[in-house]
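From: lab user (bench 3)
To: helpdesk
Subject: output format question, protein + ribulose-5-phosphate

Hello, I'm new to running complex predictions and I'm not sure whether the block I got back is the full result or only part of it. Here's what I submitted:
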Amino acid sequence: MNQDELKQAVALAALVYVPEGEIIGVGTGSTANFFIDGLAGMRDRIRGAVASSEASAKRLAAHGIPLFDLNEVESMPVYVDGADEIDAGFCMIKGGGAALTREKIVSSVARRFVCIADASKKVPVLGKFPLPVEVIPLARAHVARALTALGGRPVWREGVVTDNGNIILDVHGLAIAEPARLEAEINQIVGVVTNGLFAVRPAEVLLLGTPEGVQVFE
Ligand code: 5RP
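Helpdesk reply: Thanks, we reran it on our side. This is the complete output you should expect:
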């Protein structure tokens, strides 16, 4: 199986976590896209979805899945999304698709975060994948200096503007021993909107796509 086939298998396996008659949270990226395509097959059995990006909203709408604004939704049973890296404690790096802020907001309203990932995303220590940080444009140089002081090497993802009108700094060279502490520390830098560590609130379920089949960790 190639990586796309592993992503598709794991995305379809997540459909059993979608309760009937509910509004669910939907992530962003190629794995989430396979999930959205699978969700289309049960669109008459759910109330709808809250999207974590304009791209996912467009794909959901194209399948005729009703979209809800997060402000209309008090709680959701589940949020399903991919990750760039995930460790044994289900802490993640996300934001390779620049949707980290909305992903963190939408997932925070869900009772269960189901991470769908191919086996390449499982790592012993987070940080080989450069950590995305969403930054207010005016603060780019200031935040870059602060991230350097933390031991990272920030690189501006030039040409990318997030759905919120901000920029992304990708921080290279971090070996993240304490993800929740670093997540909180980076969020304290003035000008940071959020960072791609999902560790203060990790996933509750990991579906891992392996050549031997989908492995479930809860
Ligand atoms: C987007 C994300 C994605 O979940 C992450 O980048 C994984 O993407 P893919 O499923 O395409 O490998 O965080 O901001």
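A quick orientation on your result: The chain is about 25% helix and 25% strand. Let us know if anything else is unclear.
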